[in-house]
Amino acid sequence: MDRTGTKSYALKRRAAHLSRLRKLLGKRLRQARKDADLSQAVVGCKLGQGQTLISKIEGGLRGVEFGEVEEFAFLYGKKLMDFATPTTILVSKSLNGARKSAILWAGDRVTAARSGRQRR
Fold first, then answer.
1. Higher pLDDT, 112 or 44
2. Which pTM value belongs to this model?
3. Rounded Cα gap, residues 51 and 1, in angstroms
């Protein structure tokens, strides 16, 4: 197989993997919303979004950024790690001698600390 075919295959696999992660996160968000006894309309109103957007997120049709997951967690009274997916990574790095931790979500842009490169 030529290089273009291999790259195309790899991109399709990555897209399928990210789609599964979005669906898994959406399922966890939906369950947390139901546990909090809130409707999609109420959640959308509290977050300044529409009910249809909440539905798309819960259905895995739209990705969610880290800050949005934080807002959902706060609203539902959950810990952020309650929504972690199998590919969520906990990263520790040393900045100015102090250890800092950050949670990186699948699909988020990550800046490598040493080389200054950006990874996806």
1. 44
2. 0.68
3. 45
Angstrom distance (rounded) from CA 82 to CA 89: 14
Average pLDDT score over the chain: 75
pLDDT digits (tens, 9 = 90+) for 78-100: 988 888 765 555 444 444 444 44
Q: Which CATH number fits domain 3-79: 3.40.50.300, 1.10.3720.10, 3.90.228.20, 1.10.260.40?
A: 1.10.260.40
Which tokens belong to 77?
């009274």
Which helix H or strand E contains 114, and what residues bound it? none
Helices (H), 36-65: 40-47, 51-58
Alpha carbon separation from 88 to 11, 59, 118 (Å, rounded): 20, 19, 18
d(CA 75, CA 87): 24
